[in-house]
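Quick question, first post here. What does this chain look like in 3D?
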Amino acid sequence: MAPARIFHILVVDDVFLMCDFLYKVISTIQNCKVFKATDGRTAIEILDGEPIDMLITDIEMKAPNGLELLKKLRCGTLNTPHNIPVLMFSGNTYKDMVLESHAYDINDFLAKPVSADGLKKKVQLHLQNEKPIKAPEYYQ
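> Answer (accepted):
Ran it through. Tokens below.
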């Protein structure tokens, strides 16, 4: 039997407690290796240096924020495949930000507070179900 595939998941939140919560919850999911970043710059370094399979990011952070990370990813400017699943969350569900993130084909939007159970279910769901993502040129 082939060894189980290990999924590399990056969690990004500038609130340390939230970042630790996401990290701990996702670490309990079988076959998931978690990376964490507390700012967009670090997130970009990880996305450029590691084979990331899923991005989970807060929208609101110091630049680059979650939306800017999403745009860079979908436009193919990072070393990570542009079509990986992206889950975004925010304490403020500003309609325009939510709509803009959907324009870049996020897989899911989670409103804070995020429950451990709900988060695990969403991660497992999106690792198993691929969403068709358009070519990078479409997003540029």
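The helical segments are 16-27, 40-49, 66-74, 95-103, 116-128, 136-139.
The two ends are 42 Å apart (CA to CA).
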